[in-house]
Structures
1.
Amino acid sequence: MKAFLLGCANLITAIVVEDFAWFANRAVLPLEDDPKAGQLMQFSDWTSMHLGALEVGSFVIPYWYIIAIGLATSAYYIAFRNHSTP
């Protein structure tokens, strides 16, 4: 069970990191033909359209990021809470 939870937590974390890295690259190293070049996530981006997003300054944090980080944190906690016992 611990291995399963750890695997799920790692997968969720990897998905969030990969998604954010795509937008960070768009902001830092934009393509010439990208209409949103130089911007982080916006409400009109596909990642924030389905569940919505929380506006923070000039960018948004998709609600699924918050949910995913909460699930991963819970899974990591459960997997490691008694790590010294077999």
Note: Residues 2-30+37-80 form one domain.
2.
Amino acid sequence: MHSVWTLTGGDAVTPADDLVAALESSDPDAALAALVGRDVDSEDWRTVHPRTGGPGPASVAELRRIRRELERANDGLTELRFHLASALYAGKPLGARRVVDPDTGAPLA
């Protein structure tokens, strides 16, 4: 699962003096890049889902739980696929070889 790490609150703010010093340095591009890429040790770091912007996992334990649930769901889908394939091949239950549109019930080719 991909998450975006965000920092909010006071730790996310860059002091104006640091920005001015970076802009007035001999290499402002490198100085600003260093400011943007700096490591900030803070309790305010949070993960955010990249598409929805909703909260992401808050701990490694939560990530492990999510991974277990995804693996269990994947295993269930794989098992279901084999059950459906067997049923279509054997024609059980009756009519399983006939494929119909789920919305209209009309037979499909």
Note: The chain has a mean pLDDT of 82.
